[in-house]
Amino acid sequence: MTQSRAIQTTTTAAALALALGTALTLGNTAVAGEGAAKEKCYGIALKGKNDCAAGPGTSCAGTSKVDYQGNAWKYVPAGTCEKTASPTSPTGQGQLAAFKAM
User: Fold this and answer.
1) Residues paired with residue 26 on neighbouring β-strands, in sequence order
2) 51, 55, 71, 76: least surrounded by Cβ within 10 Å?
3) 43 vs 73: CA distance, rounded Å
4) What would the pLDDT profile of 82-94 be if each residue is shown by its tens digit?
5) Residue 98 burial (CB < 10 Å; 0-12/13-18/19+)?
């Protein structure tokens, strides 16, 4: 192997190692963000956009029948549910438990 070929091989290997290291670091950062505290927020999901628990006659995610259904929830960052608008809620805000829509 010539000296220039050896340098080229070493440079290519270093570039690949750097790219792989960067990809792994960025991948771990995204996963860490997904692990942030979440809470179930009832009464804020739009029709067919709930995460689960849409009441009798429905199976789970994406099965809410109307916007802001009181027994359908979405995951939101912890502490934000009761600050999110819900026109069917007794308080006008999302709830931490299912409710009968007004």
Assistant:
1) none
2) 55
3) 6
4) 999 999 999 999 9
5) middle
